[in-house]
Structure formats: C-alpha cells, structure tokens
Design brief:
The structure is a single chain. The protein folds into two domains: 4-167, no CATH class; 175-284, Cyclophilin (Beta Barrel), CATH 2.40.100. Helix content is 14%, strand content 33%. The protein has helices at 37-47, 188-196, 267-271, 286-302, 315-319; strands at 4-10, 15-17, 52-55, 60-65, 69-82, 85-87, 91-95, 100-116, 118-120, 147-153, 161-164, 175-179, 199-201, 209-213, 228-229, 234-236, 244-246, 253-254, 258-262, 278-279, 281-283, 305-308. The longest helix has 17 residues, at 286-302. It is globular. The termini are far apart. The relative contact order is 0.17. The model has no long low-confidence stretch (mean pLDDT 92).
C-alpha cells in the first residue's frame, strides 16, 4: 500500500492544484492552477510531487494512512505544526501515520501548499488534476474526511528539514506592471493615478480576481471592449473604476479594458496579499520584466536549500539531552 493523505480538517477554499489546465482557453476552459506558482513549485519540487493541496486562510489539518509520507509545505507565513511542535513556514518532513500536521493562518500570506511526494492515484480531467470550483472541473474542493490516495509514494526524509527559498520572502516593494493591451483607453493622468495610488485588497477577492480599493480610474470613452483573452495578472477597469486583478480562476476572456498586467515574477507576491493589505504598482519596461522573470525562474530551478531544524528549547527537550560535560569541585 502506497499510503493516503487524510484530510482531518479543511477551511473554505482548500483545493487540489497542479500546474494548470492549459490549452483549452479557446473552448472557454479556465486553466486554474496555483495562486502562487512559486510557492507551489517550492513545495512540489522539494517533495517530488505532481500536485499539491492549496490551503487558504481557513487552514487545514492532515494525517497519513498506510505509510509514512514525504510532505513539503511552502507558501505564506502560516503557523505550521506537527503534533503541536512548530515548524518553519517552508519545510520538508516525514508524516507518519500517528502524526498530525496542522496549518493555520499566520502573520502574513494568503495561500500555502502541501505537497506529497509521489504520484496521486487520481485521473486527470482534460489533462489536469487542478480544481476549478466555479465550473466543477477537476476534483471537488477538499473537506474533512476526504483522502488522497498515492499510486506511488516518494521516500520521506529521516527528520523535518527547513526549506529556504528567497522567492518566498514577503516584500513591501511595489509590484511591477507592464502596460495593458488597452492602456490607450486611459488618459496619461489616469495611468499616473493608478501607478501613484496606494491600493487595498478588497474583501470581495477570491481565486477569480482581487478587487482593488482606492481611487476610481476613469476611462477616456466607455468601458466596453470586444472581449479578448486575459492572462493571470491582467488588471481590468470595469465601469465603476475599481480595478480587478485577474487571478488563477479568471475567466478565459474579458470585456473590460486592461490598464496593466502584473509581471510574472511578481504574481506570487500579489497572490499572497490578504483582504485589507495595501499595495502599490510600479511601471517596468519589457527588458526589466524579462530580466526579473529569468532571475525568478533561475532561483526556482536552483531549488530551495534544506537544513536540519534546530531543536525547540523547552524544558522537555532540554531534559532529553546530556548537557553536562564534566563536574568541577570548587573546593579543590
């Protein structure tokens, strides 16, 4: 038996994702896939996995059944605990059948990925196991009591390891954008207003789009265009002037002018913002966007570094160690 990953608990928005369902947009099929591609790759590559469970702010809990599983976790700064012991927000660990892995929202970040080494015993839909809840494509969102069976399990590490991946580090720097395909629908002062504003992620934000709260951006003449294809990170300006940043579950086409597009290297930073978080944008040229993308891909290809965890300094852990190196009699 290759083992199963049991879902002990799951908040809203816990889904299975792989790289995405590409090649079908012309038929109206959304790619789906991870909200933070870099965090997804950090987890799946560390574990040797072909997919990952995407965990939202509601958190989740997991157990293994049938075998000790190789599990990697990466994403936002979540509170990660294995049988109550805190782990770093990015880690690789053996999940034994008698252990419980719990993820809760931490100090920052909106998404976290749990990847299990091996190959899932789950048939793809249109070439992908990615969940797209709005259309019902792929596996249904995960809930307590569900299980993911492995057709083939990867070897687990002997002990938990910390993962260090520089592209996972949060940043307050402005998010880079290129001019959108309909930037000419906006006067130069409106584009300046978009770039100079401090925006806030609205409560009405989800895997389909992040609504940005701030100044209304006005169109030169009308807000309707002939619908065309949209990419993840495209920023539409609908009739009310409130920008919509399209995300992993975006619609395949859109009929609102797109003022800008978030560069690929910064999509994860945008995705990891929570409702209420602030952000700003910075215009970049094509060469800078390509250079940032190349550096981002090179870092991911190099992989996360691994290091043993330092033991937690509790009374119990200290009592298990031989901390006495000798005895000296002060009288002598």
């Amino acid at each position: 038996m290759s083992g199963r990953l049991l879902i002990d608990a799951a908040g809203p928005g816990v889904t299975l994702q792989d790289a995405g369902r590409f090649g079908h947009s012309r038929y109206g099929v959304t790619p789906a896939g991870p909200m933070d591609p870099g965090a997804y790759l950090a987890a799946t590559r560390a574990a040797g996995a072909d997919s990952a469970v995407e965990v939202s702010l509601g958190g989740a809990a997991f157990r293994a059944e049938g075998a000790t599983l190789c599990v990697a976790v990466a994403g936002g700064d979540f509170d990660i605990r294995l049988d109550g012991r805190p782990l770093p927000p990015a880690c690789l660990l053996p999940l034994a059948p008698d252990a419980r892995l719990v993820l809760r929202a931490g100090s920052s970040g909106a998404w976290c990925y749990v990847a299990v080494g091996g190959i899932l015993d789950l048939a793809p839909t249109l070439g992908s196991r990615a969940t797209h809840a709005r259309s019902g494509l792929g596996p249904k969102p995960l809930a307590a009591g569900d299980a993911l069976r492995l057709a083939e399990a990867g070897p687990p590490p002997l002990a938990p390891l910390a993962l260090t991946a520089p592209w996972l580090a949060p940043s307050d720097a402005p998010i880079g954008v290129l001019p959108g395909p309909q930037a000419d629908y906006f006067a130069s002062d409106e584009i300046d207003a978009f770039l100079n504003a401090r925006w806030r992620i609205g409560a009405r934000s989800d895997r389909m789009a992040y609504r940005l709260e701030g100044p209304a951006i006005r169109h030169l003449s009308g807000h309707d265009i002939v619908s065309d294809g949209v990419a993840m990170g495209a920023i539409q300006i609908p009739g009310d002037g409130a920008p919509l940043a399209l995300m992993a579950d975006r619609q395949p086409t859109g009929g609102y002018p797109k003022i800008a597009t978030v560069i690929g290297a910064h999509l994860g930073r945008l995705a990891q913002l929570r409702p209420g978080d602030d952000l700003s944008f910075r215009a970049v040229d094509w060469d800078e966007a390509v250079a940032a993308r190349c550096a981002y891909v090179a870092a991911i290809e190099a992989g996360a570094t691994r290091a043993p965890l330092s033991p937690e300094l509790t009374t119990e852990s200290l009592l298990t160690e031989n901390l006495v190196g000798g005895v000296v009699n002060a009288i002598d």
